[in-house]
Backbone:
């Protein structure tokens, strides 16, 4: 029987998103299908665009600080740290040691919270319902610490240019230590549910493979890059906020597939807990703010500062013209850059694999669109 064609085409072009729950926000993916096989994709973004960078050029340096919390809204603390470090470099100032230690604690707790939300939703996409309840239970304990510290749970505005917004509250260290002791057995519990589960392994192993060379070509960073075997972490390669003082390992994978990205993030949660424990034990006394002028007017110049956010390299490029507002503000968000690799990862796979691969990239559309 001859092959039936429609308008001289055997491909079926369909939309996945922007309202699809598995696109993790408002991402529209145009899929070109041959039956269940994916021949190509095109990502359509911009549904959550708010002009954050242009807003930054029309606000003072201090006024713009809360806006960055709204980009990757599940890792607000990391966004704020990167921005503060960039402005501090422009001003040639440094946060006091106490502020740096607290920054590390809050940022690593935020990494854990971000990975927990990723794990719960990723497992839910693939059909495992239980992990999302477990992960949100543990994430809630991190959010309680944030709420006690600065009153916010999601868009956590924790830092100021030059240091911290608030001094730590009574019992802060004890609460953080208690969380660390309680949390590690929970990670083991997640692994018991998933790591050697044959359905989980069948859905993830060999799916969405991205080699180390392909990662470098696309500019992919974070857990996706490390899963391909590249031991690159800005906390080790270009230490900031005193990360050189802490002992921790950089987990890597071998195959660069979706399963390796899962195991890398699981180990990252353990390593983040290890860093938090060290930081809590050595919080120095002293001021929480450096000497920052009331009116921030950095000298003429430009700066690029990058940190290791939960999703990869988050960089801020700021140009100063010696006024109270940035002349140019540009953000390098890891979700946006990592999303470029989606087409390479899904070609030749099945429609069901697209869901698994979008989940394993751990994108947040507030950061992609800005």
Residues:
């Amino acid at each position: 029987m001859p092959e039936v064609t429609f308008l001289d085409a055997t491909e079926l072009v369909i939309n996945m998103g922007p309202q699809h729950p598995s696109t993790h926000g408002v991402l529209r993916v145009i899929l070109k299908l041959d039956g269940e096989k994916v021949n190509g994709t095109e990502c359509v973004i911009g549904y959550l665009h708010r002009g954050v960078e242009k807003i930054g050029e029309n606000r003072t340096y201090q006024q713009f600080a809360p806006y960055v919390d709204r980009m990757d809204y599940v890792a607000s603390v990391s966004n704020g740290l990167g921005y503060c470090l960039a402005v501090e470099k422009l001003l040639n100032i440094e946060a006091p040691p106490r502020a740096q230690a607290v920054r590390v604690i809050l940022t690593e707790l935020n990494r854990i919270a971000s990975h927990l939300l990723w794990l719960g939703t990723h497992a839910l996409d693939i059909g495992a319902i239980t992990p999302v309840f477990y992960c949100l239970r543990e994430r809630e304990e991190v959010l309680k610490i944030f709420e006690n510290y600065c009153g916010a749970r999601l868009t956590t505005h924790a830092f100021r240019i030059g240091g911290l917004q608030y001094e730590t509250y009574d019992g802060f260290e004890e609460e953080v230590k208690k969380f660390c002791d309680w949390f590690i057995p929970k990670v083991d519990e997640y692994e018991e549910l998933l790591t050697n589960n044959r359905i989980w392994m069948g859905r993830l192993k060999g799916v969405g493979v991205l080699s180390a060379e392909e990662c470098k070509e696309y500019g992919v960073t974070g857990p996706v890059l490390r899963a391909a075997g590249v031991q690159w972490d800005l906390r080790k390669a270009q230490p900031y906020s005193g990360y050189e003082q802490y002992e921790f390992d950089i987990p890597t994978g071998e195959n660069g597939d979706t399963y390796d990205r899962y195991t890398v993030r699981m180990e990252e949660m353990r390593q983040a807990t290890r860093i938090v424990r060290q930081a809590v034990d050595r919080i120095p006394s002293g001021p929480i703010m450096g000497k920052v002028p009331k009116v921030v007017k950095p000298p003429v110049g430009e700066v690029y500062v990058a940190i290791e956010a939960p999703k990869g390299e988050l960089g801020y490029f700021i140009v100063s013209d010696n006024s109270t507002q940035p002349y140019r503000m540009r953000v390098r968000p890891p979700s946006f850059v990592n999303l470029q690799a989606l087409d390479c990862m899904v070609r030749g796979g099945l429609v069901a694999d697209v869901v698994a691969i979008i989940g394993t990239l751990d994108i947040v559309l507030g950061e992609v669109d800005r």
